[in-house]
Amino acid sequence: RPLEVSSRAPVSAGRERKSSSSMSGSAIITDPRFNDLTGSFNAEGFAKAYSFLNDYRESEKAEMNKEMAKLKKKGKIAEAEGIQAELKRMQSQDVARRRLSLKHEAMKDIRQKQREQVAKTGKMPYFPKQSEVRKRVKDAMLRETAGKGKGAQ
């Protein structure tokens, strides 16, 4: 007889079949991310609930800038470059977050205009092209950066 019983053979009547649910004394562990009872994901609610993290990130970036300046004064260039790389990563994440929020706003705006057209003229709604959405996001980003440039001067 082999040391390990083949899983291909059916379990005989005299032998008990082991499964994860038949383990005695163990509680059933469920992950709320995949459980239907926890509800569906609401991105806007999530953004509102965790908006304080944006302020925290800004203060962390300011602190890192101060630390980088101190390290440069002391001559610790390698450590300062590490902090600078981390700052660059954080800034690119901020840009990506902003671009995503602008995309959501553009889609929301398009859907609202479609609803108005359907209500007024009875026109059939359409799915916007991704190029149209990208163009709106790009325009919004340009307007935002132009506004920042004028305010700085």
TrEMBL record:
Query: Does the entry feature the keyword Cell membrane, yes or no?
Result: no
A Gene Ontology cellular-component term: 90S preribosome
Taking the record's annotation, the residue ranges forming a coiled coil are 54-81
> How far does the signal peptide extend, from start to end residue?
none
Q: Output compositional bias ranges, type Basic and acidic residues.
A: 104-118
Region described as Disordered: spans on this chain:
1-31, 104-134
Which InterPro entries is this protein grouped with? RRP36
Q: Which keywords fit this entry according to its UniProt record?
A: Coiled coil, Nucleus, Ribonucleoprotein, Ribosome biogenesis, rRNA processing
Cell compartment(s), UniProt: Nucleus, Nucleolus
One record GO biological process:
maturation of SSU-rRNA from tricistronic rRNA transcript (SSU-rRNA, 5.8S rRNA, LSU-rRNA)
Give the highest taxon in the source lineage. Answer: Eukaryota
Purpose: Component of the 90S pre-ribosome involved in the maturation of rRNAs. Required for early cleavages of the pre-RNAs in the 40S ribosomal subunit maturation pathway.
State how it assembles.
Answer: Associates with 90S and pre-40S pre-ribosomal particles.
The record's comment on protein family reads:
Belongs to the RRP36 family.
* Name of the protein in its database record: rRNA biogenesis protein RRP36
Gene that this polypeptide is encoded by? RRP36
